[in-house]
UniProtKB/TrEMBL annotation:
The lineage of its organism: Bacteria, Bacillati, Bacillota, Bacilli, Bacillales. The gene is murA. This is UDP-N-acetylglucosamine 1-carboxyvinyltransferase. Coiled coil: none annotated. One of its GO terms (molecular function) is UDP-N-acetylglucosamine 1-carboxyvinyltransferase activity. It comes from the Bacteria. One of its GO terms (biological process) is regulation of cell shape. The active site is at C116 (proton donor). Pfam families: EPSP_synthase.
Length: 428
């Protein structure tokens, strides 16, 4: 088991290239189940979530070959193999096997998903969608059983705007008979990316990226080649890192429009950001001022950048109020930031950050993926050395994070944990 160490205070300079989007990748791989011949996806991030999904595709009979960041998935020999336990529990996005297998085989058995612990993460809207399409859905001992004689298009209104439910319903509906309309759909860029791969396979989808998506079901979908979009959350994380500890940092392979809400907040703090076609140039100021942020569905401020942004606020002058309307309890990083001398109170669903403070290196634990990113940002700014454990969470979403930061001048490295440290970590 490894930990990440950061020696703070070293300025970041130079360039970082953003990887393919995790939250697209984890839906694009299951989408390949729906095709009748090989699907090739280019530009994938080699992160643990993607590796696990590749293994799950093999478990159901897919032939998976990797060529650096390109995957080739031959789905022709896949079966409706039940996946009630095991690797499906290691990540959130295994729930996309429900929609994709229901679409192709009209049946599936998938264990309830894992993923970051951010408070309750129900999947009732996914199930409502599958039922509307004609599936019988039961929960038996922690696994979801889905079965349909046939799938029929339906009009589905989502009570909650959900990325996962929108994509999962799309995956099943492309193989349903007739027309499906998803109302109050999520509008995240990853939804457009999934609609793009499905369209390349032959699906008929209109309106992805708006809150009404119309799908005309097809009998067969064929193989295709698709290039994934860049990861806006990884790009946002490096932009925040540059704002926290950079001199001049170029973020390459980014779609700036995906990050408008975050860039607006950074500019409000006094940080200079130049936007190119696929690049952002960040030149922070020494003195930055606090802002309030409230997370919202896209195109609002993304919940996945709330935790990294909180670390940045510790170096800003004034009081910043952070409110997460998507996951009201996404504040597990706050106790760890306090160990590093941050002045943050959690009150009534908001974190109130007072600054500026000089953070101090400490031994801290990442409770989830973006908490891990928040602690690395804090470590970059802190006096002395910060040790971050729980890095398996970070590896779910950040490709080569230590190498990328090292190339920009950060002192950051991995070390094996001693037996005592592993025991302490497991008991904490
Ligand atoms: C793999 C992936 O893409 N993960 C992202 C996805 O998660 P995920 O798809 O799980 O998140 P959702 O968009 O579904 O969740 C949004 C909100 O809706 C609620 N909800 C969701 C589904 C449901 O059936 N019922 C329900 O009540 C959730 O508890 C949450 O409060 O979107 C989140 C919100 O942008 C991001 O933080 C995650 O990084
Ligand atoms: C919450 C996240 O991921 P997941 O939904 O995969 O747990 C995230 O990417 O911040």
């Amino acid at each position: 088991m490894q930990k990440i160490l950061v020696e703070g205070g070293n300025p970041l300079n130079g360039q970082v290239r953003i990887s393919g989007a995790k939250n697209s990748a984890v839906a694009l791989l299951p989408a390949a189940i729906l095709a009748d011949s090989t699907v090739t996806i280019e530009g994938l991030p080699r992160i643990s979530d993607v590796g696990i999904l590749g293994n799950l595709l093999e478990e159901i009979g897919g032939t998976v070959t990797w060529d650096d960041q390109t995957i080739h998935i031959d789905p022709s020999k896949m079966t409706a193999m039940p996946l009630p336990n095991g690797k499906v529990k290691k990540l959130r996005a295994s729930y996309y096997f429900m929609g994709a297998m229901l679409g192709r085989f009209k049946k599936a058995v998938i264990g309830l998903p894992g993923g970051c612990h951010l408070g309750p993460r129900p999947i009732d809207q996914h199930i409502k969608g599958f039922e509307a399409l004609g599936a019988q859905v039961t929960n038996e001992q922690g696994a979801i059983y889905l079965r349909a004689n046939e799938l029929r298009g339906a009009r589905i209104y989502l009570d909650v705007v959900s990325v996962g439910a929108t994509i999962n319903i799309m995956l099943a509906a492309v193989k349903a008979k007739g027309k499906t309309i998803i109302e109050n759909a999520a509008k995240e860029p990853e939804i457009i990316d999934v609609a793009t791969i499905l369209t390349s396979m032959g699906a008929k989808i209109k309106g992805a990226g708006t809150d009404v998506i119309r799908i005309e079901g097809c009998e067969t979908l064929s193989g295709c080649t698709h290039t994934i979009i860049p990861d806006r959350i990884e790009a946002g994380t490096y932009t925040i890192m540059a704002a926290a500890q950079g001199e001049e940092v170029l973020i390459d392979n980014v779609i700036p429009q995906h990050l408008e809400s975050v860039l607006a907040k950074l500019r409000e703090m006094g940080i200079s950001i130049e936007e190119g076609d696929e690049q952002l140039l960040i030149r922070p100021r020494k003195n930055i001022k606090s802002v309030d942020i409230k997370t919202l569905v896209h195109p609002g401020f993304p919940t996945d950048l709330q935790q990294p942004f909180t670390s940045l606020l510790t170096r800003a002058t004034g009081t910043g109020v952070v409110t997460d309307t998507i996951y009201q309890a996404r504040f597990k990083h706050i106790d760890e930031l306090r160990r590093m001398n941050a002045k943050i109170k959690v009150e009534g669903g908001s974190a109130i950050v007072s600054g500026p403070v000089q953070l101090e290196g400490a031994k801290v634990k990442a409770s989830d993926l973006r908490a891990g990113a928040a602690l690395i940002i804090a470590g970059l700014m802190a006096d002395g050395i910060t040790e971050v454990t729980g890095i398996e969470h970070i590896e779910r979403g950040y490709e080569h994070i230590t190498d990328k930061l090292t190339s920009m001048g950060a002192k950051i490295w991995r070390e094996e944990m001693s037996r005592e440290e592993v025991e302490q970590f497991q008991n904490s």
